[in-house]
Amino acid sequence: MGSDAAMTQSYPPTSPASPAPPLEDENILAEILLRLPPHPTSLYRASRVCKRWRQLILDPEFLRGLRAFHRTPPVLGFFHNSPCPRRFVCAEGSPGRILHATAALRRDGEDGMWWFVECRHGRSLLRGRDWADLLVWDPMTAERRGISVPYRVRAGTFDLNAAVLCPKTVRGDCHYSPFDVVVVCTRQARAFACVYSSATGSCILEFQLGNQRLALVELPSETFSVYKRNIRVGRSEGGGLGLTAVKNFSMHLWVREVDHLGTEKWVLGREIDLYKLLALPLTQTRVGSMPVWISGIAEDGNAVFLRTMVGIFVVWPEIKKFKMLTNSVLIKTVYPYASFYVPEV
């Protein structure tokens, strides 16, 4: 009897193991960190919490997920070629990596400096004074690639311009992807283009990027009579070709649309009253005598940089938000730079 009782004696059931706290679970932690605001200082502060968080944030797989989740990189600020102490002006936070890298951006030669041409997909394109040399520079990774522009491209040209492009399959910044540099010039009322491919390391004297080709796009008839060259080409809010123009204190956003007959034409999409939007800063001086000029547009068209007599403002048209970035009146043309900020190790 006693032995039977011992055999049937019950014990309290073993409790299942408690789940790990959310911040101890690698997958959950990664999902939380992905949802931090794409602000320059967000990941930097998170990476300073502990070594484990820093290793996770610097993992290439996490960085790919970050870009895929947020898609559009934030505008960190702009570069410029004006005679100011700092050639980079921050729009959000204080990304020290860019400031330090820009201070050391020098070139061999008589002029001793590179001149910014444009910024796109997380890279910056710079040129020598005579366009004989180009430099593709990644402020985040410090990667540099020098390119020689063939003399037969430069000889006898009336005007030169260039752009750095990434594969169509890549959206946002593409720090570790191949890139192409397109150089466009005009000569005797004709336009020419050549392409440098980082994959092959050579120039191709034709414009053949997939199915892309040179095409003439007529501007709205109001371009010169109304806006007097105060107009910039960029990407519209819908992702297509767009124009941003300013007349007095009114910003006009034009979009390229196709009508029911299949004809492309320019349509005025939105109009923003800059006098009301920038009322507080602009009333500090004589408003009636203050011109507003477009200094630059972010590559995704989501930020417009305006030059006034009191300094430079950045305006986010979609949310009608603005911010004064600098009171310098020496800066005229700016080159907005957008990228996901990668913390320094």
TrEMBL record:
<feature type="compositionally biased region" description="Pro residues">
    <location>
        <begin position="13"/>
        <end position="22"/>
    </location>
</feature>
<feature type="compositionally biased region" description="Polar residues">
    <location>
        <begin position="1"/>
        <end position="11"/>
    </location>
</feature>
<protein>
    <recommendedName>
        <fullName>F-box domain-containing protein</fullName>
    </recommendedName>
</protein>
<feature type="region of interest" description="Disordered">
    <location>
        <begin position="1"/>
        <end position="22"/>
    </location>
</feature>
<dbReference type="InterPro" id="IPR001810">
    <property type="entry name" value="F-box_dom"/>
</dbReference>
<dbReference type="Pfam" id="PF23635">
    <property type="entry name" value="Beta-prop_AT5G49610-like"/>
</dbReference>
<dbReference type="InterPro" id="IPR056594">
    <property type="entry name" value="AT5G49610-like_b-prop"/>
</dbReference>
<dbReference type="InterPro" id="IPR036047">
    <property type="entry name" value="F-box-like_dom_sf"/>
</dbReference>
<dbReference type="Pfam" id="PF12937">
    <property type="entry name" value="F-box-like"/>
</dbReference>
<feature type="domain" description="F-box">
    <location>
        <begin position="28"/>
        <end position="61"/>
    </location>
</feature>
<feature type="domain" description="F-box protein AT5G49610-like beta-propeller">
    <location>
        <begin position="195"/>
        <end position="315"/>
    </location>
</feature>
